[in-house]
Design a protein that fits this description.
Order of helices and strands: HHHEEEHHEHHHHH
Distance between the termini: 44 Å
Strand content: 5-15%
Radius of gyration: 18 Å
CATH class of the largest domain: Mainly Alpha
Helix content: 40-55%
CATH topology of the largest domain: Arc Repressor Mutant, subunit A
Strand order of the largest sheet: 1-3-2-4
Structural class: alpha+beta
Number of strands: 4
Mean pLDDT: 81
Length: about 240
């Protein structure tokens, strides 16, 4: 909506990734916790001072409402249904942390035009700030340098012929990089964002994903793109 664009400006993907990297770097410097997976619960509660509330009533009786943040009360709310799935739970927390980093100061200056905070709903067209928070969450949970380290260590014999193939690659990155608190779909989407799969289709985590091909590029050309990208990365090292 137009008022949202006035209040919350557009941010480039590079800016959002940089803000996520900055938060993670400052957290690690202060706490000396450098390991993966990124401990988003600790960041939210102990580092940023938010209380996490798990709910299954009110708005959260609707499974489409995943989480919300109330800046004035330093409160993050999470749907109880999300808590049972570690990947979705971690991403929801990271998403709300994204709102804190990207939108809190703007909101507090202009809160007369909004409610206490914001809610993340899974269905429908997402507002700009929700897309920004999603990008931040992915960057926080799956830092680009950490993902690159895993990709660089992998051999070139990867299957990029299908969505199932991309999911296999994502599984390998998760396992080898210890990204154990993210879902397979989230990792596939992060690989797309980082340019490892430029023609791939973003995943939703539903069965519908498996019925779709990865773009329209022939599998042999896809494999060539991947190998060329790998060789370029290694020459830079």
């Amino acid at each position: 909506m137009s008022t949202e664009k006035t209040i919350y400006p557009e941010l480039s993907a590079e800016t959002i990734d940089s803000r996520a990297d900055q938060l993670l770097r400052e957290f690690r410097e202060e706490t000396n916790r450098n390991q993966l997976p990124v401990p988003v619960e600790v960041i939210a509660e102990q580092y940023l001072g938010y209380e996490i509330e798990i709910l299954d009533d009110g708005l959260f009786s609707d499974p489409d409402y995943l989480g919300g943040i109330i800046f004035d009360k330093n409160l993050i709310q999470v749907n109880a249904a999300v808590e049972r799935h570690e990947g979705r739970y971690s991403f929801t927390l990271a998403h709300e942390i994204g709102h804190h980093v990207l939108h809190r100061d703007i909101y507090l200056k202009q809160k007369d035009v909004d409610t206490d905070g914001g809610m993340c709903r899974e269905t429908g067209e997402k507002p700009v700030i929700e897309k920004q928070a999603d990008r931040f969450a992915a960057a926080l949970l799956m830092p680009s340098t950490a993902v690159a380290d895993v990709i660089d260590a992998m051999d070139d014999n990867v299957d990029t012929k299908s969505v199932a193939g991309m999911r296999m690659i994502a599984s390998r990155v998760i396992e080898q990089g210890n990204f154990t608190n993210v879902s397979n779909s989230a990792m596939v989407n992060r690989l797309i964002d980082l340019g490892y799969a430029p023609d791939a289709i973003y995943q939703t985590g539903t069965a519908h994903d498996f019925s779709r091909r990865v773009g329209s590029t022939p599998w042999w050309l896809w494999n060539s793109f991947w190998k060329l990208f790998q060789r370029k990365r290694r020459r830079k090292k």
